[in-house]
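Researcher: Here's a chain I'd like modeled. Treat it as a single chain, no partners, no ligands.
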Amino acid sequence: MAITADDVSLEDIVPISLEFSVVEVSSPEELAVVGGDTRVRVSYQEEELELRLPFGSHSRLFLSEVNRAWSDVCKSPTEPPKFEWISKYHKATRGQGVVKQTFAPLGNTITKLNQHRKTDKTSDKKGSVEKEKASNSVTQKSKASSSAESSGNFSREDRDDLVRSSSHTPSNKAQILAMPQFGLRDNLIKCELLKNEDLYTFLEDFSIFLGTYNVNGQSPKESLHPWLSCTLKPPDIYCVGFQELDLSKEAFFFSDTPKEVEWMKAVTEALHPEAKYALVKLVRLVGIMLIFYVKKEHAEFISDVEAETVGTGIMGRMGNKGAVAVRFRFHNSDICVVNSHLAAHIEEYERRNQDYRDICSRLQFRQLDPNQPPLTIMKHDVILWIGDLNYRISDLEVDYVKDLISKKEFETLHNYDQLKRQIDEEAVFVGFVEGEIEFQPTYKYDTGSDMWDTSEKCRVPAWCDRILWRGKNIKQQHYQSHMALKTSDHKPVSSVLVTGIKRVNPDDYKKTFEEIVRNIDKMENECIPSVTLSKQELHFKDVKFMQHQAETLSLFNDGQVPCQFEFIQKPNEHTYCKPWLTANPPKGFIAQGGTVEIELEVFVNRLTAPDLNSGKEQIEDILVLHLERGKDYFISVAGNYMPSCFGTSIRSLCQLREPIQDMPQETLRELQAEISGDENAAKTEKPLDIPKELWMMVDHLFRNAIKQEDIFQQPGLRSEFAEIRDCLDTGMPDSLPGSNHSVAEALLLFLDALPEPVVSFSLYQQCLDSCSSASMCEKVISMLPQCHQNVFNYLAAFLRELLKNSASNRLDINILATIFASLLLRSPTKQDLAEKRKTQEFFQHFLTPGSS
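Model: Modeled as a single isolated chain. Structure tokens:
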């Protein structure tokens, strides 16, 4: 239900007007946590409002909107704001008769802000500090720019101000917590500065400690000092990664775990004792955690910190496998640290390769400037990749492997390492380097000992835990495991990389900057930007559900000036393209004589498939490419979509006795219109009880995977899903291809893509209300349309058969209820945690023995 003005009441209103000011506030003890929340104080005359904003890009976007509104007010200072919109909120709030209107013109000058600062110093006896800085800045700036320059601490914010102030448009130096908003001229200056970086930067070595540890769901039982303080000198930066932090079902399904605090405390206590460190950022996805510390004296040079996660588990979403990452700028170098946990089992190296590719393509960081496209992992000067990569040793018997280890013939053994082989074949980690391995495999040990796995499976030892890097001016000081730690069935691994970091010489920077501005002033004239397009018509052949297709469009700047391009919205449309199409990058800058390649990608997912399957939509669009100060170019995009059972309704599929791709498009359109128009319309043939595609997948799993270990928990291969999809859509071959895990994932994707879930949206609330009563739950299911009711009962019966074999497949009622309830009972709006638990309770009634 939409929220309207009648649903909202305001207690305090702080208008953004000429006297508006925002000041960041923090206490001295909070300065050590670089990635902590941001506290800001909004002031007006005698009124003050303090807000705590969570660290990250969302808060910066909010602050940039505040700044944008404030900038708009400054453009017309003589017009007092009327704030007419507030009148709709004039009603009682929290027992008050009227809204308390805190109208306050809040200051727009540094002088005004300094006045607030002086007032606070006298009134705040606890010594709270206020800092003017960009929202992602780390520590206080120097009190005066002259002292900063004399000490060589020329910050990035100072340089951004210099770039902005060179523009012909007015520059406001009092934009507290604002984001850099660069125009065409500014982008050109930045581009030229980047090209001439060698003229004003120099390299300085800093040591980065990298550690990775799969803790097998254990709590810390011993000091981590032998691992984290193994170097003589304290490192400048720590990046410590964990996997399998918590193996409980609560952590997997609800992402809550007390072990985050336990392991963070253990790490903090084990950092090198000869230095003091500041926590910059902690990021976690289920059991994958990354903690980033920096020496306190370096903290002020850390900026642009962002953290992201991506799950690569079942359906590409579950976070039991995947990666967490942090990116940041250290002085003038951009660094990205990735901690990943890839697919398990010795034979699944292709799945590990796929996980790696997914992480690289899906993990993206927002930039400080929201107008800039997100940064991928590979768009950094230095990339550090750690984690349990799970690559094993192949083609050797376990006894021979242990014999080679006892003789320390690690080089011979390494030739059989799956990761080495995949890197040699350039299947993964192209351009990355791994140091020479001179330590014994780190997996698998009996917990609490140095004994190799003595369980029934007796796994072959393997170097699962690895550290790799990519970038220039990097030297590895050590690469080793730590046998002293016995908490887990893995051993932790560490490496210290001495990395050449680019530092800025302020004097050289200013000389370079001034020279660039002079050259641009000479070049700027009335020339109109223009580009040549490599093509203006693109055709995508045989577009299929969840299958990426891409075409490259090249833009060549044939004009006399640099240009800035952007795909813009057409009239009456909310986005620049249809939802199945993306352009990467959607905007950018091209230097004179330069070329930019844009990848136009078509990808049909569960949201866009229904309309394409029914013929309501076609693969057709026109893109408008706009040049700033130039003309618009029109690009035609077309293609033929291959209808799929994925994204087609249950009722439609029950009407189809032939594969969907054997049906004429007109027939599919008529069928959809008939179903949408009259549920009781006469049918020429009796419909199927359940969709034949659903029966094929469930029947295959019933016959082949009833005892399959980790079924519905381990992902399949994307290439095998494509074969399964084509088989279901074309009827060829007669039996489903691919592994059991791929068929299981295809079944989940089929249910997820249904336009109307198995339990209709109209009955969703009744399901929540009935969740505590088995008889009431059965009554709700009896109200479903017959085909939906048949599908629900068929799936529940199949899952009960799976549970009879839980000793082999390691499933239990909670796992199945969690996975399937979210697919069978989908909320028409966003589902909260309480609703999620109720849907699981509802579905569990149908999984207990004896359910009918």
